[in-house]
Amino acid sequence: MKSKLFIKLLLLAALLLVLSITATTRARTLTAITAQDVSTDQTVPSGGTVSISISPEQQAAAIAMWTREARMAAQPMDILNVSLDEAEEEQPLIPDAPAVPDMPGFSPGGLPAPGANVMAQQQFPEEWSRLDEVTADESPQTDAAHSTSLEGSPLAAMGTKQVFSRYRANFYHPMWRRFPYVAIGKLYFQTAAGQDSCTASVVRPNNIIVTAAHCVYDTTNNIWFNNFVFVPAERDFATPYGSFPAETASILPQWINLSGRPAPGWLRHDVALLTLGRNAANQLVTRYTGWLGLSWNFPAVQHHFTFGYPVNFIDGEQYTYICVAESFWRTTDTIGMGCDMEGGSSGGPWILAFTPYEAGALNFVNAVISAGLGDGANTYGPAFTSRNIEVLCNLEGC
Predict the structure, then answer these.
(1) Domain count, the chain
(2) DSSP sequence for 150-171
(3) Is residue 36 part of a domain?
(4) What tens digit of pLDDT does each residue of 100-121 get?
(5) Helical spans, DSSP H, in 42-153
(6) Is position 9 within any domain?
């Protein structure tokens, strides 16, 4: 009798275990859909994220593919371009304020590991020798400044358009190997048409980078790009900290469901997270770069420092540039700021509380470069909110 009772209890325990696993799997399916579950001719359920996993073999192939010569030949991905007429049709210029604003939130950044640059020099001596040849010791100079008078305009309280300063960043010796500049780099990837690049930045201690969704997923052909490799602090096509393949990539279902040309209202979903693997020295990216903080649900009008590798400047593919401006509201969860960076800058971070050489409660990524609306020297991007970056982070572990 005891033997039969023991068997019954064992079977019952096994049944409960199976039910528990089934329930957990079902719960995960409701919040994180894999690429294998997504057909290119169907709508993806809203809520949660859509993600792909990249095998170790695919990661190794991506690293082998992105040689210096291949990176020099890559085409900078265009920022999205939407006409101002389409933008005006979508939303009124000045909206009603939300009845109950979302609570602002943030997660702090972190500094690189002590001795990270010494270690990198030992691991990648040829790359550091190459960088020493192009070192510029001069102090940063402002390359451009634009101003537009908004005195007496109702837009003045909503931020300023076409007003910014712009200058080189990691061209200069004090910047190219210091935080937070080293946490920003180039994301390379393979498209159906060829090999492209965007800008991305490290945002969490578990080796996650943020960029624009249009640098990860093609809404026209409904396919993922592939062979993702991130090069932090790339300078004149040198890789001072090596190259890091992507292990996973995640976007919002709303971006997949777009299935065509983005309109301004869709820019709020143009954000992606990628988790990185190790470089050739078997190190994780945050050891060299640290990570930037994240902020969400902040008011539209903020003072931003925006970074990118813009192809429209003579050396923009070689060095990062910075636009400094006050942002303004465009439409739901979408903000703009004065800036004239174009292709290659897609996915570049908009940083709040920008403070060189410090981390902690500073240097928050608050948006990424997404689009131009044809209204002059302005750039637009998804304002980070509980509906985009927080959803991605909650499900991707950042």
Answers:
(1) 1
(2) -TT-TTGGG--SS-EEEEESTT
(3) no
(4) 568 999 999 999 999 999 999 9
(5) 56-65, 68-73, 84-90, 116-123, 125-133
(6) no
